[in-house]
Design a protein that fits this description.
This protein is α/β, with parallel strands linked by helices and 580 residues long. The protein contains 21 helices and 25 strands. The longest helix has 20 residues.
């Protein structure tokens, strides 16, 4: 569950003359679809989303809903554009009809759009440009509106919904064009010139536009036979709204008009569904019966990692060796979550050095920090802290201090709390610089114990604390007493947020070097122990086998992560998308 701004769609229902059941459809299908689109959005550029559907399927309404929801619930700015607004003028189509084939006088099929303007407009929007004139076509006059009536975007667009009956369509093979598919083709395109020209346009200049698409949505009709009834209903709405004119049809002319679209529509219903990122299946009544998201079946890697002795060298904490590989993982959409005993101040300082802005877990699972707007919605229970959402799982360290005084005061001379050390002492014990040690001292939920007594005294000390239900973790340098949480519990909480927001399954990968990391490693699908000669208490997993690196951090971390098949698949070269 998330905290969200619930969109009142009553005005939306009235605008599109929709029944109240659309509210149910939005909750079951359209909002999850919007969230999947956002999850698929590249982090460093705008995206183009195709919404394909035959006439009357509801693609324009769906695109409008997605824009409404995205703009109301996220930081992104989205717009919807229609391929219909790029139709050539009546005069231009009349010239095509005279020079190429008479059927090109009717708008609709590939060859009757201004593809040069279409590609230029979309490319400029994808290049973050503003004041781009967005064409508008008036179906009543069967001509584009004057350019002075075209709207312009006043700020950069993040997500473009590009809807149309043939958007994302693919060309047929030449042999498929030999036989006419309906009465129109048989009587008015006997030689096949028109359909071959349409197919050639679709294979060439239209495909150049469609190559810009990042994400595809299809509203799949049961069959072409249902299209006429849907289109007739759409026509009746248009007549009620605009009256008779060039943009409307009587029943006989509507049958002829739809025949222009039959070939490509039938091919789309056959060929496109398996290629779609999102497929919404419609029944005869045009109700959505199911939605299939490609992302639901694709497992994504999610990496949780300890820092000292795991990601970073135990002795000098050098970042140089790991930074390029982390950047490579981020570019491939592999999330790497720091799950550490370090403090908020330490982790944010480290992330700044690594240019790594991802969620992280501090003080052995005590709190989870998520950059604001990392997810579209703030998870319930989180509080705002500067640029982050914070979810606390543990009480503050004041509770530990109180328990130590009340239950183990006789051992006060055997240890020093981390908070009692000076920055210089922390530096000498850990190898951190004095400045880094100051960050390490800014603890909120935990206060590690630097034990100076004997092992026998330590055993007695821990026995006294047993009734208080502290989890005792021995790290590389300090003893950690955790209450109500650990790295594994915090990891699972954050994993659930990813599952909620992104829907698709995850494979969790956890890397650690000591007993302090055991809960995190035990909860992961893939557990990797990084060899650390300095670790006094190595992890011993209770329920699963684990990988062990041959080399210590950071090279051992790189070796093991890069060798995982799921990471190799993610890092494999992909087709480069250029929107320039």
């Amino acid at each position: 569950m998330q905290e969200a701004n619930i969109v009142d769609i009553t005005p939306f229902l009235a605008k599109h003359q929709l029944p109240l059941k659309y509210q149910y459809l939005s909750e079951q299908f359209f909002i999850p679809l919007a969230e999947d689109i956002i999850a698929a959005k590249p982090s460093n550029r705008p995206m183009l989303v195709a919404v394909n559907g035959c006439q009357g399927s509801g693609k324009t309404t769906l695109a409008d809903f997605l824009v409404t929801w995205i703009n109301s619930n996220t930081e992104f700015n989205s717009i919807s554009i229609s391929i219909d607004d790029f139709y050539l003028s009546r005069e231009q189509r009349a010239n095509l009809a005279k020079d190429v084939h008479p059927l090109f006088a009717t708008r609709g099929v590939p060859g009757t759009h201004d593809t040069e303007l279409m590609q230029l407009t979309i490319s400029e929007l994808l290049a973050n440009k503003i004041d781009i004139a967005l064409p508008r076509f008036d179906k009543k006059t069967d001509d584009p509106l004057p350019k002075e009536q075209w709207h312009k975007n006043k700020k950069p667009i993040d997500i473009i919904l590009f809807e149309g009956w043939c958007v994302a369509s693919t060309a047929q093979q030449p042999y498929q064009l030999e036989q006419p598919i309906n009465q129109l083709e048989e009587s008015e395109d006997e030689a096949g010139i028109w359909r071959r020209c349409v197919n050639s346009c679709l294979a060439n200049e239209y495909q150049s536009v469609f190559d810009l698409i990042d994400y595809t949505v299809m509203l799949q009709a049961p069959s072409f036979e249902d299209v006429y009834g849907w289109r007739l209903e759409q026509e009746q709405k248009l007549l009620a709204k605009k009256g008779t004119g060039f943009g409307t049809f009587d029943e006989a002319s509507l049958i002829r008009f739809i025949s222009h679209f039959e070939r490509i529509t039938r091919e789309n219903l056959h060929a496109l569904p398996e290629k779609m990122d999102a497929l919404l299946t419609l029944d005869n009544a045009r109700d959505i019966t199911a939605m299939t998201l490609k992302a639901d079946s694709v497992t994504a890697p999610l990496v949780f990692t300890d820092l000292d002795g795991t990601l970073l060298n135990h002795d000098d904490y050098d970042c140089a060796a790991i930074k390029p590989f982390l950047a490579q993982l981020t570019a491939a959409d592999v999330t790497v979550v720091f799950n550490t005993s370090k403090t908020f101040a330490e982790v944010t300082d480290l992330q700044a050095m690594l240019n790594h802005r991802q969620p992280f877990i501090t003080e052995n699972g005590s709190a989870v920090y998520i950059p604001k707007f990392y997810f579209p919605l703030k998870p319930i229970g989180c509080e705002e802290l500067d640029e982050y959402w914070r979810y606390a799982l543990a009480p503050t360290c004041a509770k530990l201090h109180e328990d130590l005084i009340n239950y183990a005061s006789e051992f006060k001379n055997c240890y020093r709390l981390f908070s009692e050390l000076s920055a210089q002492e922390v530096s000498e014990l850990t190898g951190l610089s004095v400045e880094q040690s100051k960050l390490a001292l800014t603890r909120e939920y935990s206060d590690p114990i630097y034990w100076q007594g004997s092992d026998e005294q330590l055993s007695e000390f821990l026995t006294l604390l047993e009734p208080l239900d502290y989890e005792v973790l021995v790290g590389g340098r300090f003893i950690h007493l955790n209450k109500q949480t650990n790295k594994g519990q915090a990891q699972n909480w954050l994993l659930n947020q990813f599952k909620t927001h992104y829907r698709h399954p995850f494979t969790t990968i956890a890397l650690g070097d000591s007993q302090n990391d055991m809960a995190m490693l035990d909860e992961a699908d893939i557990a990797i122990l990084i060899t650390n000669p300095n670790s006094k208490a190595k992890a011993k997993l209770a329920h699963k086998p684990w990988h062990v690196s041959e080399r210590p951090a950071p090279l051992g971390w790189i070796d093991e992560v890069a060798d995982l098949q799921i990471i190799k698949a993610q890092l494999a070269p992909r087709k480069e998308q250029s929107h320039g």
